[in-house]
């Protein structure tokens, strides 16, 4: 689809391959449980949609705004995302395994238990997000920031944290995660 306005689409449990959304606006649409392979989403807005439990493999997202959308337990594994903004969305349990994220902003998102295992994150910001129990293991993090975000019970390995910017409070918390004891 190109240049389309999609409102109220019901695609629960649909099987879609090589779907393209270019310069589209998708609102109030339901993709719960959908199986989407090799989607290409460019210059598109997804607003107030539901992708809960959807499997979106090997997707390409470029210049996309995701606003007030439910991505709970969605699988976005092995996907490429560039210049994507997630705002006020629910991504609890989302799977970003082995994905590549560049110039991505997560703003005020619920991301409890998100899985970034083996993912490459470059210039990614998690601003005011709840990342409790999120996993950033065996990945590559470059210029990643967590301003105002909850990092409680985060799982991250020492090699991944080398290029991460955190606040003083977050640094104190993470020092405990890595067994560092601070003594004055």
Topology:
Elements: E1 5-7, E2 15-17, E3 20-22, E4 25-27, E5 35-37, E6 40-47, E7 55-57, E8 60-67, E9 80-87, E10 100-107, E11 120-127, E12 135-136, E13 140-142, E14 144-145, E15 155-156, E16 164-165, H1 168-177
Parallel strand pairs: 1-4, 2-5, 3-6, 4-6, 5-7, 6-8, 8-9, 9-10, 10-11, 11-13, 12-15, 14-16
Strand content: 35-45%
Helix share, percent: under 10%
Order of helices and strands: EEEEEEEEEEEEEEEEH
Biggest pleated-sheet summary: 9 strands, parallel
SS field, number of helical segments: 1
Number of strands: 16
Shape: elongated
Structural class: mainly beta
| CA gyration radius, whole angstroms | 17 Å
Report low-confidence residues grouped into runs of 5 or more.
none
* Ends distance: 61 Å
Mean pLDDT: 93
Describe the structure.
There is one protein chain. This protein has 184 residues and is mainly beta. The protein has one helix spanning 168-177; strands at 5-7, 15-17, 20-22, 25-27, 35-37, 40-47, 55-57, 60-67, 80-87, 100-107, 120-127, 135-136, 140-142, 144-145, 155-156, 164-165. The strands form 4 sheets. Strands 1, 3, 4, 6, 8, 9, 10, 11 and 13 form a 9-stranded parallel beta sheet that branches. Strands 2-5-7 form a 3-stranded parallel beta sheet, with no helix packed on it. The chain has a two-stranded parallel sheet with strand order 12-15. The radius of gyration is 17 Å and the shape is elongated. The termini are far apart. The mean pLDDT is 93.
């Amino acid at each position: 689809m190109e240049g389309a306005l999609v409102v109220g689409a019901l695609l629960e449990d649909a099987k879609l391959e090589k779907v393209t959304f270019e310069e589209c606006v998708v609102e109030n649409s339901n993709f719960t449980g959908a199986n989407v392979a090799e989607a290409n989403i460019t210059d598109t807005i997804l607003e107030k949609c539901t992708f809960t439990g959807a499997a979106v493999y090997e997707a390409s997202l470029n210049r996309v705004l995701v606003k007030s959308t439910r991505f709970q337990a969605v699988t976005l594994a092995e996907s490429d995302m560039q210049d994507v903004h997630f705002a006020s969305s629910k991504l609890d349990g989302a799977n970003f395994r082995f994905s590549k994220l560049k110039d991505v902003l997560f703003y005020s998102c619920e991301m409890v238990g998100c899985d970034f295992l083996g993912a490459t994150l470059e210039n990614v910001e998690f601003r005011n997000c709840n990342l409790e129990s999120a996993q950033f293991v065996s990945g590559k993090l470059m210029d990643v920031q967590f301003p105002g975000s909850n990092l409680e019970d985060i799982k991250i390995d020492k090699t991944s944290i080398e290029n991460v910017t955190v606040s003083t409070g977050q640094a104190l918390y993470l020092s405990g995660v890595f067994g560092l004891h601070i003594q004055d």
